[in-house]
Each structure stands twice: as C-alpha cells, then as structure tokens.
Amino acid sequence: xxxxxxxxxxxxxxxxxxxxxxxxxxxxxxxxxxxxxxxxxxxxxxxxxxxxxxxxxxxxxxxxxxxxxxxxxxxxxxxxxxxxxxxxxxxxxxxxxxxxxxxxxxxxxxxxxxxxxxxxxxxxxxxxxxxxxxxxxxxxxxxxxxx
Length: 147
Fold this sequence. Notes:
α2 (19-49) packs antiparallel against α4 (67-84). With 147 residues, the protein is mainly alpha-helical. It has a domain at 19-116. It has helices at 2-12, 19-49, 56-65, 67-84, 91-114, 122-128, 130-140. The protein has seven helices and no strands.
C-alpha cells in the first residue's frame, strides 16, 4: 500500500525543468537554509555569551543542551552538505538527514504547543495552514505540461 501511494504521488509530479535545473535549485535552497541556520545559531550564541548570569562555560553548556539548538545544528550541517553535493547518499547520511527533519519538526511542534501565548491561538493556527494547503492543492492537481 505505501509503495502504491508513493508511485501515485511520483506520477503526479511533472518535472518540466529537468534534473540539472532541479539539482541547482536544490543546491541553492539547501545553501540558503544552511546560511540562515548558521547565522541564527551564531547570533544566539553571541547573545548567550554576552549575558551576565553564570559563567561563560555554564552558559555555553546550557546553550548546546537545548533540543532547539541541536536540531538547528543538524539542519545547518545536513543542508550545508546537500548544498555542496545535492545528490549525496548513503545510509549514515540518510539517518542524519532524517534526524535533522525530525528534530526540527519536534522543535516546530514544541513552539506551536508551548510557544508565544496569547498571540498564537486556534484561529491563527487555522489561518496559518491556508497557504500550505493551497500550495499542496496546486502542486497535486494535474495540469498540462508546458513547453
């Protein structure tokens, strides 16, 4: 059953750009993601080190102990590796890539559940899924191939 679903979804995806364009786009996307993650991690680390509570070592250990930071490091490393070589494969890399996806998903879900209150309420959550649902519908609706 899962193989049939994957086959069906693959058939719905129409690749009009070709594999070389898709790899270049993937490289750019992964590179941009790695840069944003790296900039965020460095900025937060500088802020943590410049705080005046506890020792710098305690603050640094605490910083690297957060699952949020760990998942962002994983995303940064995996995306940098994919930016360098978007066709990267191998069982260890697959595990690292999936770990990064799971880690950042847990981080996002944690933010959604325990994040900024009262600014995020059920209405905002429902409104925030409109764009992804519209994109998904647009992506999955069969349409003629141009070109």
